[in-house]
């Protein structure tokens, strides 16, 4: 048994980010062709494209603002021209901002999280799901966060955006399930990335002490779950919020 994404085309938003680039490489290693979305770092996107083509897969670069419907529609047109119709959408991009208390957080920060979590999910669905319905196969995978269940101080804008995203994904799963399209979320814990490795910052005793597995997860462990949910091995899983946090958060039943 193996994860086989041969002949599938996957779009990863925020593919040049710390987690996104590992997802792109992982889905490509499973056989998928990759649409690499970036917002500002074209050089990283080009490097990633070279890596994926060296693996024997096709890769296209698309630039766009994931908070704007017309921008996502333009991305779709470009991907179709370069690769074909998208089978797998991984909503990974999110606007970055400085976390602070509810009383001090600006209204603009709440708006940015709503736009990049909720509206990105809506716009991606509106743009890419119709083709999936036509083919009777598709995968929507949203990258959520363990913070959605923690609700710690200073997390309010991020949590509000991601919990809104959760609502969209759960409803969408029920609306399009009859077309054999699955809609799921992966919720990473505080994950070790290349940036942490470069800064020798892989460990945090205070955080790790709260995690049942007593360590932080890695970017590859997140990407592995994304690949699984994108595959036919997960064909009967939909509407799920899957924490990849070493047990740090556990959804109840």
Task: State the main characteristics.
single chain, 253 residues, alpha/beta, Rossmann fold, seven-stranded parallel β-sheet, 9 helices, 7 strands, globular
Textual characterization of the structure:
It is a single chain. By secondary structure, this protein is α/β, with parallel strands linked by helices. The protein has one domain (9-241): Rossmann fold (3-Layer(aba) Sandwich), CATH 3.40.50.720. Helix content is 44%, strand content 15%. It contains nine helices and seven strands, in the order E-H-E-H-E-H-E-H-E-H-H-E-H-H-H-E. A seven-stranded parallel beta sheet has the order 3-2-1-4-5-6-7, with helices on both faces. Strand 4 (88-91), helix 4 and strand 5 (138-143) form a beta-alpha-beta unit. Helix 1 crosses helix 9. The radius of gyration is 17 Å and the shape is globular. The protein starts with 8 loop residues before the first strand and ends in a 9-residue tail after the last strand.
Give a quick precis of the structure.
The chain is α/β, with parallel strands linked by helices and 253 residues long. It has nine helices and seven strands, in the order βαβαβαβαβααβαααβ.
Identify the strand order in the major beta sheet. 3-2-1-4-5-6-7
Low-pLDDT runs of 5+ residues are none
Q: What is the average of the pLDDT values? A: 97
Q: Which architecture name does CATH use?
A: 3-Layer(aba) Sandwich
What is the helical fraction, as a range of percent?
40-55%
- CATH domain class name: Alpha Beta
Largest sheet: 7 strands, parallel
Number of helical segments with 4 or more residues: 9
Under CATH, the homologous superfamily reads: NAD(P)-binding Rossmann-like Domain
**Extended strand count:** 7
Kindly estimate the percentage of residues that lie in beta strands according to DSSP.
Answer: 5-15%
Indicate the structural class.
alpha/beta
Succession of helices and strands: EHEHEHEHEHHEHHHE
Quote the CATH topology. Rossmann fold
Distance between the termini: 30 Å
Radius of gyration: 17 Å
Keywords: Oxidoreductase
Pfam family, one: adh_short_C2
Protein name: SDR family oxidoreductase
GO molecular function, one term: oxidoreductase activity
């Amino acid at each position: 048994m193996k994860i086989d994404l041969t002949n599938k085309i996957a779009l990863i938003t925020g593919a040049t980010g710390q987690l996104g680039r590992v997802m792109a490489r992982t889905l490509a290693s499973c056989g998928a062709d990759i649409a690499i979305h970036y917002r500002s770092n074209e050089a990283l996107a080009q490097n990633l494209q070279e890596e994926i083509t060296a693996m024997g897969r096709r890769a296209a670069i698309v630039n766009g603002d994931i908070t704007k419907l017309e921008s996502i529609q333009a991305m779709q047109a470009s991907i179709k021209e370069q690769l074909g119709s998208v089978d797998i959408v991984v909503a990974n991009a999110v606007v970055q901002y400085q976390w602070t208390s509810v009383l001090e957080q600006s209204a603009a920060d709440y708006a940015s999280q709503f736009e990049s979590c909720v509206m990105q999910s809506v716009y991606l669905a509106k743009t890419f799901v119709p083709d999936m319905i036509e083919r009777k196969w598709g995968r929507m995978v949203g990258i959520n966060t363990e913070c959605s269940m923690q609700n710690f101080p200073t997390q309010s804008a991020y949590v509000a955006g991601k919990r809104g995203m959760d609502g969209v994904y759960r409803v969408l799963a029920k609306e399009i399930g009859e077309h054999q399209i699955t809609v799921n979320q992966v919720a990473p814990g505080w994950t070790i990335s290349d940036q942490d490795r470069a800064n020798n910052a892989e460990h945090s005793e205070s955080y790790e002490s709260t995690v049942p597995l007593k360590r932080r997860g890695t970017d590859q462990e997140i990407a592995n779950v994304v690949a699984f949910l994108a595959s036919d091995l997960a064909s009967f899983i939909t509407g799920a919020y899957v924490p990849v946090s070493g047990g740090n958060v556990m959804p109840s039943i």
